[in-house]
Amino acid sequence: MKTVYYIILLLNIFAMAACSNQGEAATTSMPSSTPEVEATELHAFDADSAYSYVKAQVDMGPRVPGTEAHDRCAKYLAQKLEEFGADSIIMQQGTVTAFDGTKLPITNISARFNSAKPDAKSIVLLAHYDTRPWADEDPDPDNRNTPIDGANDGASGVGVLLEVARQIGLERPGVNVEIFFTDAEDYGSSDGMSEDSWCLGTQYYLDSNPYSDGAPAYGVLLDMVGGKGATFYREQFSELYAKPINDKVWAQAKRAGLSSRFVDRIGGAITDDHLHFIKSRIPVIDIIEMNNVATGSFPPYWHTLGDNMDNIDRGTLGDVGSVVTNLIYSEK
Ligand SMILES: [Zn+2]
User: What is the distance between the terminal CA atoms of the chain, rounded to a whole angstrom?
Assistant: First the structure.
């Protein structure tokens, strides 16, 4: 991903509708009201385990669609999901056409973990596992055609969700959970004009009508969730189209004492996989690092060769994983 927009006009309209104090509402980062959640015990999440899953992916090399490392990673992810007790795993294979005409062989991976309850609602948790084929933001022009490790942009979200899946395997929550590892998210054009050139795997998946047996009640996308010092703000499309889910997530963060990591304010608007779910009328939010202290936006190593294990922090993975895990176990 992609573009960070600041939809000031749109947000002001939204903020004024949502807030009784219109003077205070006329900013892009109004504080949001976060509901209290039941103070039950926090569920375990093992950050070291998540870190090991991130490293395992990075150790395979860049996971660019069409490469051997990519296919090896797809098999590894399916094997882990099977090991954690998924009730079904679908490896959806297909071909998509990139913005430059390249035909990309893709594999989307969907694993379902059913709860014991027959009519339980479903929640989808997703992350992309492919990595960008070019370090096109690298400060050194000689590096800009080199594929990136994608430790944060790719492997981090997947690593957290693998550990969430492991926890679900140990103790089923009260809801059905789909873990969706999507492909070809990061093969997009950086010309700023071709937003649909990103998220090709998710577009392919949703076009295939995967929810004929009932759509998920909501979903959470994780993207760039392992950076040192990362902060997460309420992403704007999420806030506009799936605000109750943002409210739930930020309430879990507050309950876990993570309000400095999950800042309860509105950040930028980002083109990412969640937008395609929203277009399919499934409310999905995006938890993604933004407002980095060095850049005011994504971290400085985004789409550079610096997106490697040196910039991954167990603490960030653990905080995000803890919030998502507790969200799942708080659902009845
Ligand atoms: Zn990216």
Answer: 33
Distance 2 CA to ligand 1 centre (A): 6
For residue 41, report the distance from its CA to the centre of ligand 1, in Å. Answer: 35
Query: Ligand 1 mean position to 37 CA, how many Å?
Result: 33
Backbone angles phi, psi at 320, to 5 degrees: -65, -45
Tell me the CATH number for domain 34-330. 3.40.630.10
Model confidence pLDDT, tens digit, residues 185-227: 999 998 877 889 999 999 999 999 999 999 999 999 999 999 9
Q: How far is the CA of 112 from the centre of ligand 1 (A)?
A: 26
Residue 153 Cα to ligand 1 middle (Å): 5
Task: Please give the pLDDT value at position 5.
Answer: 57
Cα-trace Rg, the chain = 19
> pLDDT tens for residues 221-278?
999 999 999 999 999 999 999 999 999 999 999 999 999 999 999 999 999 999 999 9
For residue 104, what are the CA distances in angstroms to 78, 290, 329? 20, 29, 37
Question: Ligand 1 centre and the CA of 205: distance in Å?
Answer: 19
**123 CA to centre of ligand 1 in angstroms:** 24
Counts for the chain of helices (H) and strands (E), in that order: 10, 10
Contact present, 5 and 27 (Cβ < 8 Å): no
- Residue 170 CA to ligand 1 center (angstroms) comes to 32
Can you give the pTM of this predicted structure?
0.91
